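pasting for the record
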Amino acid sequence: MTLEQNKQVALEAFRVIETDDSVAADRIIAPDFINREADDDPDRPDRGLRGPAGLIATSRWLCGTFSDLRFDHHEVVAEDERVVIELTMTGTHTGAFHGIPPTHQRFQQRQFHLFRMRAGQNRGAFGSAGRSRLAASTRCAEAVSNRARSERGILIAVHRKQRRARSLEYALTKFDWSAIAQT
């Protein structure tokens, strides 16, 4: 696969999330696909699911929580089998999110996503969108304040990751890609 084809496959994963397109998921997501962000969150209903079923479960969870869900990409960089996407996720908070009732507020959240590709399929993903940051984006200030106390370590780690990931070059040259998928 060319770098441009890898970029297109990575971007198509976000269209699958927006549309719940299981046919596209079967085509672009490898059977051993791992969503590391879901695996790191014990409250995620898509935790532990692999392959296309894992991406479709993520789609259903996100679309059930945030209506009008959309991902607008700003920059896409590829090198070898790695793709990094900087994007903004927007939507309306219309479903419960980790115990936070719907606020019906519009939100936007800037994110970085790192993908490992092989043979035209997405093998693994890691994103910088933590649940505390996403809750803050939906303007659930009081609930976020309560959660932030118990997730302070997560917030600090996310902040550190964001600082390091500000440069897409960092993500391509220094990120530990072995955490996304074993080669």
